[in-house]
Amino acid sequence: MAQAIAVDIGASSGRLVAGTLIEGKLELQELYRFENAFTRKDGHDYWEVDALLNELLTGLNRARLAGIDACTLGIDTWGVDYVLLDEAGERLHDVYAYRDVRTAGAPDRFHREHLDRQAVYGRTGIREMSFNTLYQLYVHDREQLRHARQIMLVPDYLYYRLTGLAINEATNASTTQLLNVHTREFDAELLGLLGLGREQFAALTQPGTRLGGLKAELAESGRYPDCTVIAVPTHDTASAVVGVPAAPGRSWAYLSSGTWSLLGAELAQPLNSEAARQAGYTNEWGAYGTFRFLQNIMGLWMIQEVRREEGSGRSFAELADRAAQEEPFRSLVPCNDERFLNPASMTEAIRHFCRDSGQPVPEDAARLARCIFDSLAFTYLDALVRLEELTGVSYDVLHIVGGGSNNRLLSQLTADLLGIEVRTGPSEATAIGSIAVQLIASGALADVAEARRVIADSFPSEKYRPNPVPGREMLERRWRTLTQLNPKES
Ligand code: LFR
After folding, report:
1. Of 170, 285, 367, 432, which has the highest C-beta tally within 10 A?
2. What positions does the domain Carbohydrate kinase FGGY N-terminal occupy (predicted)?
C-alpha cells in the first residue's frame, strides 16, 4: 500500500498528513500539526525557517512512531520568499517574510530604473505584487547577493536540508517573477538587472520528479521512515489546484481559500495580455504544464488578524456564526488595498477606512467579520467577472477549497453575489494535491484526471445554489464607488 506524506506549511500553521489509497479512496491521517507566524526583529518580519525544519523532522519522527516505515514525501509552503546559501551550503541571512515593509514602493523604483511593468508582465506573465521575489531581491543587500552560491525558495531549502540536493521547483519558481513564460526558463535579462547569474539557481524541477532518499545522516538515524522524496508542486496554491475535485465536462473556476483567496482557472496556455495585466491576473505555473491564471485577493488574513487582535480565543466558526446574525453589507472595504497587507492593526485599518468613506464603523468582532466577508465576496465577484471576460468562458461552478471552504456564510454569500453554483471542499486540498502528485509519481494513480475523480469520491462536498440578493443594484453601485475611491495601480 503506497503511503504518501505531505508536509504543508502555511503562513499560520503547518501539518504533516499521510495519504493512503484504499479501494479507490484516499484516506488521510494527520500525523502532526504546528504553529507558524512571522516574527519581528528590528522592525522587520522574518520566518524562522530552521524552526520549521525542526518541526518537519519532529513530524517525520511521529510518522515512524505511528508505524510508517516507508513513504514518499513532498513539501509545500507559500511562495516568493527565498534563502541565499553560501559556498558551504549555509544560510547567509535571516529569511524575510513577504509582508515585510522593505518592498513598499520597490516596484515603482524598479520599473523606473529598469524595465517598465508592461514589459515585465509580457515576459513573465506574473502580476506585479510588491512582495514578489524580483522586488525583494532588488532591495536585498547587493554584496550578499553577489556572494550567494545558491538562491532557492523556502520549500527548496527544506528539500535541500533533507536531501542535500539543490532544486528550484518550477511552480514556486514562477512566483519569483523571474521566469520567462515563453522560454519556460529563468529570464536572463531580468536576472542581469538584479546583478544575478543563472548559475546561482539550480535546474528548474518539475513536480512529480523523484529526488531520492533522505541524506545519510538522517536516513541512518533510525528516527524516520525510509523516504522517497518527490518534488511536488511546492507552491501551496499549485498543490491546492491539483486537489480541486473538478468533474470532467464542466467548466470550473476555483477559489483556494486560506490566508489568501486565490481565484482563477486552470489554463493550458498563459494569458499575458495587457488587459490581463490591468485586471490584476497572474499566470503562475501549475503542475503538469498548466497555468494558474488567478488573482490574489487579501483573503482570511483579514479575519485572522482581527481575531488575533481581539484576543478572545473565539473560533473562526463562532465568528462566522456571529457575523451571520449581523446586518449584511452594512460597511464594505476594498480588501485588495495595500493598507490591509500588513497594518499595525487590522481592526483599526478597517475602522479608519469605514469612517473616512462615511460608512458605519464596525464596532465589534462580529461586525468586523461581517464587513470582511461581505467585502471579500464582492471582491470575488469582480475577479470572476474579469476572469470570464479574459478567458471568454462562462463558468458552471466555482470550487472553493482550503480552510475557508468550511465557512458557510462566505460560501453562500459567494454563490449569491457571483450567481454561480459553489461547491466546497476539500479543506485539505493542498495536502491532498501534494499526495496526489506523489501517488501519480509512484504509479498508484494514472494522472491528474484520475486523481481528481478519486478526490471527488473520497471527501464530502457541499453545494450552494445562488439566491437573489435584495437591493443588488444599489449595493453594486456602492461597491463600485468605494473601489474607485482606491483605484488599483496600473
Ligand atoms: C498562499 C500564497 C499565495 C501567494 C502568497 C505569498 O499561501 O502562496 O499563492 O501569493 O501565499 O506567497
Report:
1. 432
2. 5-243
